[in-house]
Every structure is written in C-alpha cells, then in structure tokens.
Records
---
Amino acid sequence: GAVVSQHPSWVICKSGTSVKIECRSLDFQATTMFWYRQFPKQSLMLMATSNEGSKATYEQGVEKDKFLINHASLTLSTLTVTSAHPEDSSFYICSAREGKGPISIQYFGAGTRLSVL
Amino acid sequence: AQSVTQPDIHITVSEGASLELRCNYSYGATPYLFWYVQSPGQGLQLLLKYFSGDTLVQGIKGFEAEFKRSQSSFNLRKPSVHWSDAAEYFCAVANRDDKIIFGKGTRLHILP
C-alpha cells in the first residue's frame, strides 16, 4: 500500500521557537494533504487541507499564522508551528490523498509528538 | 452536520473471543464510511471502507463491518481477536467536501 512518511516522530522545543514537521508521500503523488491534531485519548481534529501549489484551507478556529502549511510539491507538505507554546503540545498527524474525492483513500503518517517546554 | 458516534470508550475482550465495535453516523446522503486502527504512538491504518454495493465489507486482519442504513450504523466485527488487535479504533465518515470526520475512538483491550 501507499506509504506516507512523517518526520520527525518526536520533537521537544523551547517555548517561543518554531518547529517544522514534514509529510512525504513516498510512492505516489498526493494532490491533497491533510493535517490533523490529536489530543491525548481523543479523536483526530482536522486542522487544514493542503493542495499542491495553492494556499491551505484552515478549519474554523485554527490560526493560520500560527500553523503555517506549505505544499510545494506533489510529494511534500510541511507544517510549521510558529512561536510554539506549551498549549501547542500535541500529536500531529498528516495524511495524503491520491486523486480526488472520498473514493480516494487517505494514507496517514505515523505522527509527530510535539512537546513544548 | 455530519457526525460519528462511538458509544464505547473502552472495550475489553478475551483473546480468541469475538468482537463488535459500535459506530453510528449522522449524514444526510449516502455515506462513505471507514474504520481505522491506531496503535500507540502511531498513525492510522485503514481497516476497511464502505462506499456502495454489498453492505458487508471485508477488511484486513480478519475484520469486517456491516452497513445498516436503517440503523445508521457501521459496526466493526472480528470472530476471534488476537492480542495484537489491542489498539484504538476509529470509525469515520467522509462528507461532501471530502473531509473525514472521525468518531472519538474505542480503545480495545485484550485479556490473555
């Protein structure tokens, strides 16, 4: 099956610094990538939808200046958490979709655990 | 608005026993339904999906799910669980905007 690689798997940073998370589709071209946030023992909450070559679409309540998303190629999307604070600590998961529509399955990365001190 | 309800937060079954995880959805049109599994600290793996056709869907790892429109349900089943099945299971529905809406998840515990 299709593989999505997410890096790093775990990052610890100081409050006020920025952190970049990469999401790569390894064996297919992903026209759309999604970024999710998961709090402990809770479900995944969609943060934004990223289409290659265009601006990301953010969900209501997600600060686009806080969570910068770049989808520069068909195989790479990045999420940058700017000026991170302890409340940004969470598990971030990306997914990539090959093709369009819900018939196209989303393939998920293994996630990145962000701890902000 | 679309929503997914997984009424059981935790389920504990003995190894070798049968399993059923419940899922109810709210969606006005024909739903696209999914079951995903998440092992601790990992991403999600697709177990199975329903788009149309046969309402009994077979998935990986011996799982199956049945779509019942009259009950707005898409319950996940497995006839005999293995210790390696212990994980978090998420039911999900895709909406018209192609976004996946997840339930809150059911954590499966396996007794030896």
---
Amino acid sequence: QKEVEQDPGPLSVPEGAIVSLNCTYSNSAFQYFMWYRQYSRKGPELLMYTYSSGNKEDGRFTAQVDKSSKYISLFIRDSQPSDSATYLCALLNSGGSNYKLTFGKGTLLTVNP
Amino acid sequence: SQTIHQWPATLVQPVGSPLSLECTVEGTSNPNLYWYRQAAGRGLQLLFYSVGIGQISSEVPQNLSASRPQDRQFILSSKKLLLSDSGFYLCAWNRQRNTEAFFGQGTRLTVV
C-alpha cells in the first residue's frame, strides 16, 4: 500500500461549484498536513497547513483532517477559473530525522467559466 | 522575506552530457534543502535532502548527485545524463523539519 493515495482526476467543474479534493494515507506517524497548488509549468505553492484533526478555513478554502480515518480533504467554495491547477496533498512525519514531505500524485482541477 | 531561486527554467541536453542545476535561498540561514523530480502522473519524488553544509541524504539510487557547498546553495548534478533523467526538477526549502516547504519555480529538463 502506498503511503499517500490521491485520485489524479482530472476533475472538471463549473464556476461556482464546491470542489472536494481528498487524500488517504497509511502511516499514522504523519502529523502535519499540507495542500499545495501547482499551476502548469510552475513550482507548487503552499495553500493550507494544519496539524490537528478538524477543520481549518482560509477564505474560500477549507482543509479537513481526520486522523482516525487517515483521511484529509480540501474544499474549495465558489470555485473560480483561476482555481484551475493541480492540487497536491503533502504529509510530514513528526519524529526522528525524517525531514521529508511525502506527496500525493496530485489532482488536476479545471473550473469552467 | 525569504525567496528561493532556481535556474535554468528550461534545459535541453543530449544523452551523455553533464548536468548542473543550481538553487539558492535568500533571507534565511541554515535551511533544510530538497531536490524533487516530478514526472507526469507520478507526483513529486524526493531525490535528495540536506540539513546542513556538506550533509546530503539520497532517497533513491540514480544517475544524479547533489552537493551543498554553501549554507544556502544546493546543486543537482550528473556526469552523464540518461533519457530517463528527463523531467521537472524542483528545489525546495524549509526552516525546521516540522514546517511547510517552499518551492522554486522548477527546471524542465529534456534529455534528447
């Protein structure tokens, strides 16, 4: 079983839709959870960063973590064409000397005007 | 504020030629530094990370090597490129092991 699973899509929605993006993971040592947005031919940029289970909101974006189910989500409300990008979840192990982020494969999202 | 620079943005190299990609970070000291490769449909693969000058950890055996000659400089190299080395290479940094990482704009390498 891979450490992080993310449906690569592609996902196509109309403007104004609510988008749900998800990742599952297998290693309970992951304690830090991030979502990155990557536009075509650009480096990923950090969208959301959370540590605990529950919800974290930032404008139209909400990150949700359920550690008991090993399931994380990113919700986008009132989606805009400018949200069209690849979204990657990233998880970080909290212990030892493991500094590396483990990424999902990314979900390609297209928001149609 | 902190910034990360990565160059070149694109590179076309023949098989068997050497490679040198450079990454520098400004505005912070003693960052953790990372090299990732992103292939279509395969996500981000960690190649190397470094927690200090001269300290390099390799995640996967391959045709590449990394060096950190200065605190905020990270170099990805190859002596002889293979076709399979083509991809999108990303440099990243973070301050401590438990904080988010910030990425450069990437280098798209095509080996022909």
